[in-house]
């Protein structure tokens, strides 16, 4: 007689293991609400970050425009050193964010402008470009020997105070008593 063969992998039919079933088959309402709360905080944070990024990029754009304009004024004065030395580029009036457009003068003799007339034309054109490219754009210029101290001023949009420290302080005489002080970019140019 042969010994009975046993299959080690096969289970006897009468030995079923009962696995207890859990009664929960999905997420509870409380878990869903907590997940939605966490997601809403994340989405709000992303929206605030995007708004701050847009504001910082706008402030950076204003600073870039101010720097380019100050450099342009310095180059105009270098091209017209007689007008600069005669202090024809000087502008020290107080800041006003709602100043009217400047009238660009013309030369008395159209084919021969004097250095003072060229300086007046340069100043008026620069003031008008600032008014168009910066909110409340204006400038001041003081001659200090053979150096020019240039301040480009503008008004930041409402609520943009986060990058105020990134701009230079304005001249005290430039700021009027009423209203918010402007933001300034200072440039000293040697001619």
Short description:
The chain has 191 residues and is of the alpha+beta class.
What are the salient characteristics of this protein?
191 residues, alpha+beta, three-stranded antiparallel β-sheet, 3 strands, 12% strand
Task: Describe the structure in your own words.
With 191 residues, this protein is α+β, with helices and mostly antiparallel strands. It has one domain. It contains three helices and three strands; from the N terminus they run H-H-H-E-E-E. It has helices at 29-79, 81-85, 115-133; strands at 138-144, 147-154, 183-190. Strands 1-2-3 form a three-stranded antiparallel sheet. Helix 1 packs antiparallel against helix 3. The radius of gyration is 36 Å and the shape is rod-shaped. Mean pLDDT is 84; it is low at 162-166.
- How large a portion of the residues is in β-strands, by DSSP E? 5-15%
What structural category arises from helix and sheet content? alpha+beta
Low confidence ranges = 162-166
In the sheet with the most strands, the strands line up as 1-2-3
Written as H for each helix and E for each strand, in order along the chain, the element string is HHHEEE
Largest sheet, strands/sense/barrel: 3 strands, antiparallel
Shape descriptor reads rod-shaped
* β-strand number: 3
How many helical elements?
3
Terminal residue distance: 120 Å
Work out the count of structural domains: 1
């Amino acid at each position: 007689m042969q010994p009975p063969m046993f299959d080690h992998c096969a289970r006897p039919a009468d030995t079923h293991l009962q696995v207890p079933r859990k009664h929960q088959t999905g997420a509870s309402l409380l878990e869903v609400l907590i997940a939605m709360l966490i997601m809403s905080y994340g989405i709000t944070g992303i929206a605030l970050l995007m708004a701050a990024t847009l504001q910082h990029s706008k402030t950076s754009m204003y600073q870039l425009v101010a720097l380019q304009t100050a450099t342009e004024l310095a180059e105009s004065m270098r091209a017209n050193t007689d007008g600069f030395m005669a202090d024809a580029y000087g502008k020290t009036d107080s800041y006003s964010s709602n100043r009217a457009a400047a009238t660009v003068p013309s030369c008395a003799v159209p084919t021969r402008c004097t250095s003072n007339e060229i300086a007046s034309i340069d100043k008026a054109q620069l003031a008008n470009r600032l008014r168009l490219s910066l909110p409340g754009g204006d400038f001041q210029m003081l001659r200090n020997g053979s150096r020019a101290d240039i301040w480009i001023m503008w008004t930041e949009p409402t609520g943009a105070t986060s990058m105020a420290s990134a701009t230079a302080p304005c001249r005290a005489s430039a700021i009027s008593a009423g209203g918010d002080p402007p933001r300034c970019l200072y440039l000293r140019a040697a001619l």
